[in-house]
Fold this protein.
Amino acid sequence: MEQKKTKILVCDDSSLIRKQLKDLLVTMDCEVFEAANGRIVVEVFKEVKPDVVFMDIVMPEVDGLEALKNIKMYDKEAKVVMLSSVGTSAKLVQALKNGAMDFIQKPYTTEQIEKIVADVRHLVPII
């Protein structure tokens, strides 16, 4: 039986960071979707129902914390990993309180991303 690909949604206002993360995730046999900000990410989440979301905290329009709350209101089981630059530790605590499963400090390492994908694959039932 073929395992379904892990669906991952990457949300960052930097197209370069989205591309780098997408390229890395594709090598891990993931199906990757993108959103450029916290307003769009909620719509894309509802549409594709990803296994996990990697989301930047600091974004224009709607920031990652607000988007996290909106995603969690829609699906309280959603798995969201916050990505953050240095100096946002108070926001990281808030993100965890709001239901983020984890956070990664930028610049992230390949190992950090691989570990989260592996963890999510253990949590997601194989259909």
Observations:
- The mean pLDDT is 92.
